[in-house]
Amino acid sequence: MICIPIVGPTMDKALLDISSAEKFADIIELRLDLIARFELPVLLKATSLPLIVTNRTKTEGGQWKGSEQERVQVLHQAIEAGADYVDIETSTPKELLKPILDHKSQTKIILSYHNFSNTMEDLNPLYEIMCELPGDILKIVTYAQDISDNLKIFNLLKRAQKDNRKLIGLCMGENGELSRVLSPLFGGFLTFGALDTGKESAPGQILASTLKNIYRVDRPRENFKIYGVIGNPVSKSMGYLIHNRAFQEIGSPDIYVSFLVNNVEKFFNEFKDFFQGLSVTMPCKESIIPLMDTVDPTAKQIGAVNTVVKKENG
């Protein structure tokens, strides 16, 4: 599912954005901490789509200016009003967190963890602790210092699938954009997409329209192959537009993504079983050659490679 956060800054703007979001969203998040003088009952009635009510503190990447008691009381009001989902952080004081988790209503609780500085080497202990709490959906979002941090999230999503646990698993930042595209395809409960540029609620959020119309992440698929471009920078590459459109035209489940790569050898060691083929841009065209099993004579002559193909034997 694609979730679009509504970031205000006014009630009028929020209501307008909710209406605009319906074109791309499967679910909408109300970031109450970013909407000045919000009117919760009005917001909850503004769409027929499922709604997540969120109220973040500054330490959790939000702008709530009141006390913790006041912040959590807003979430209680959302539950009483019949909100579809309420998001509450693991960092919430236990005496305030427990009543939310123990509530008896139809509202589903998203228990969330955010790390705005890095991605720990092993996410499993955190996941296991969160599984012991009575949240309906777990959310683990970290900051990617390196593209390899995405693999930690993907592996955790695979574990959650085996455990039959609903998990939102994402990486923030430029290095984490890969997770925002592929997380739903690896079993993630949802991914977040911004309604428009400048309306992101976290670093690295991709436009919802791109997630839906280009990457097609809201459409279930099986046995898909991953292709992409490697280099640094890759933000200006138009390959994702061309190749994903071509996949869509021929009815292929495959997907083409961007890999922001600083160390080519490290990338191949960690992602060698992840992709089926690559386009290569600067500065990787030359440094990639020693990593290839075979090199086309022309590429060898000019000293640069622009395409990598994985053969059936790997």
User: What is the CATH third-level topology name of the largest domain?
Assistant: TIM Barrel
Category from helices, strands and their pairing:
alpha/beta
At the first level of CATH, the class of the largest domain is: Alpha Beta
The whole-number mean of residue pLDDT values reads 95
Distance between the termini: 32 Å
Total domain units: 2
What kind of sheet is the major sheet? Answer: 9 strands, parallel
CATH architecture of the largest domain, by name, is Alpha-Beta Barrel
Assess the beta-strand content as a share of residues: 15-25%
In the predicted model, the low-confidence regions spanning at least 5 consecutive residues are none
Approximate shape = elongated
CATH superfamily of the largest domain: Aldolase class I
Portion of residues within helices: 25-40%
Question: Got a strand count?
Answer: 13
Radius of gyration: 21 Å
The SSE order reads EHEHEHEHEHEHEHEEHEHEHEHHE
Number of helices: 12
Report strand order across the widest sheet: 7-6-5-4-3-2-1-8-9
